[in-house]
């Protein structure tokens, strides 16, 4: 059985990659309560924990924001398209909070290497949470005609 | 070792299937293991076996089956791997 050919009318000079992820907030809250600092340190940067309330904040205070950030990291991985043996550390993908609450993505280490290798010119992030879930969507632009100035 | 791994999976994996019914080669992600649950499984395995997974083993492939988990743990603690 063969699949259909992905639809593309013409070469527009760029391509998009999209990743999205949904994360139950209660699972993150439970992990914070039972695993504490070990859990936080594996998944989140100190900056991310601080922006969600700080290391001394109650699990119920931290959970929604960190669940959204975990979803953002997973959505980013879907855009980066790692192989089974090449997966960036979660802390190599960081959600950066700007004025007004808007968020951006910072990539370091292997995640940056993968974005560079895939010629992803930029990534954009949107997050939300409600109804017990956190949601994140990442859109990346890949320039099919190469990146100027490289 | 395999039994301990199954206990950790049952406790932290949030799998919708009975862990005892899984073969050592069954794909845990297809069985319902999510990325977030795999983090808790990893931490549970570290507690159960008193070890820490190095960066090179924090990959999806390490946790994709009971057998692959056993192989990874064996490489860290130096015991015989589970026969798959």
Written description of the protein model:
The complex is a heterodimer of chains A (150) and B (84). With 150 residues, chain A is of the alpha+beta class. Chain A contains five helices and five strands. Chain A has helices at residues 25-35, 37-43, 46-51, 59-80, 109-117; strands at residues 15-24, 93-97, 103-107, 120-130, 133-142. A three-stranded antiparallel sheet of chain A has the order 1-5-4. In chain A, strands 2-3 form a two-stranded antiparallel ribbon. In chain A, strand 2 (93-97) and strand 3 form a beta hairpin. In chain A, helix 1 packs across helix 4 (59-80). The longest helix of chain A is centred in the middle third of the chain and has 22 residues, at 59-80. In chain B, helix 1 packs across helix 2 (35-49). Mean pLDDT of chain B is 89; it is low at 79-84. Chain B is built from three helices and no strands. With 84 residues, chain B is mainly alpha-helical. Chain B is globular. The two termini of chain B are 13 Å apart. The A-B interface holds A 23, 27-28, 31, 35, 38-39, 42-43, 70, 74, 82, 84-87, 89 and B 14, 35-37, 39-40, 42-43, 55, 58-61, 64.
SSE layout and pairings?
The complex is a heterodimer of chains A (150) and B (84).
Chain A: E1 15-24, H1 25-35, H2 37-43, H3 46-51, H4 59-80, E2 93-97, E3 103-107, H5 109-117, E4 120-130, E5 133-142
Helix pairs in contact in A: 1-4
Chain B: H1 2-12, H2 35-49, H3 66-77
Helix pairs in contact in B: 1-2
Q: Choose one word for the global shape of chain B.
A: globular
**Average pLDDT for all residues of chain B:** 89
What structural class results from the helix and strand content of chain B?
Answer: mainly alpha
Tell me the Rg of chain A in angstroms: 17 Å
**Main sheet: strands, sense, barrel of chain A:** 3 strands, antiparallel
Look at the structure and give the mean pLDDT of chain A. Answer: 91
* Portion in strands of chain B: under 5%
Rg of chain B computed from alpha carbons, rounded to a whole number of angstroms:
11 Å
Largest interface: A-B, 17 and 14 residues
What is the total tally of β strands of chain A?
A: 5
Give the low-confidence spans of chain B. Answer: 79-84
């Amino acid at each position: 059985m063969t699949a259909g050919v992905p639809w593309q009318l013409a070469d527009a000079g760029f391509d998009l990659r999209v990743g999205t992820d949904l994360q139950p907030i209660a699972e993150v809250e439970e992990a914070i309560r039972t695993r504490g600092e070990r859990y936080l340190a594996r998944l989140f940067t100190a900056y991310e924990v601080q922006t969600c309330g700080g290391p001394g904040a109650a699990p119920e205070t931290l959970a929604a924001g960190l669940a959204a950030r975990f979803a953002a990291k997973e959505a980013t991985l879907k855009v980066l398209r790692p192989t089974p043996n090449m997966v960036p550390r979660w802390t190599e993908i960081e959600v950066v909070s700007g004025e007004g609450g808007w968020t951006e993505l910072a990539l370091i280490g292997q995640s940056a290497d993968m974005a560079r290798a895939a010629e992803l010119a930029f990534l954009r992030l949107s997050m939300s949470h409600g109804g017990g879930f956190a949601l994140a969507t990442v859109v990346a632009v890949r320039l099919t005609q190469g990146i100027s100035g490289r | 070792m395999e039994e301990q791994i199954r206990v950790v999976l049952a406790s932290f994996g949030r799998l919708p299937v009975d862990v005892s019914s899984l073969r050592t080669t069954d794909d845990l992600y297809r069985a319902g293991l999510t990325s977030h649950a795999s983090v808790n499984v990893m931490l549970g395995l570290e507690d159960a076996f008193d070890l820490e997974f190095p960066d090179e083993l924090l990959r999806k492939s390490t946790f994709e089956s009971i057998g692959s988990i056993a192989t990874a743990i064996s490489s860290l603690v130096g015991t015989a791997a589970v026969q798959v």
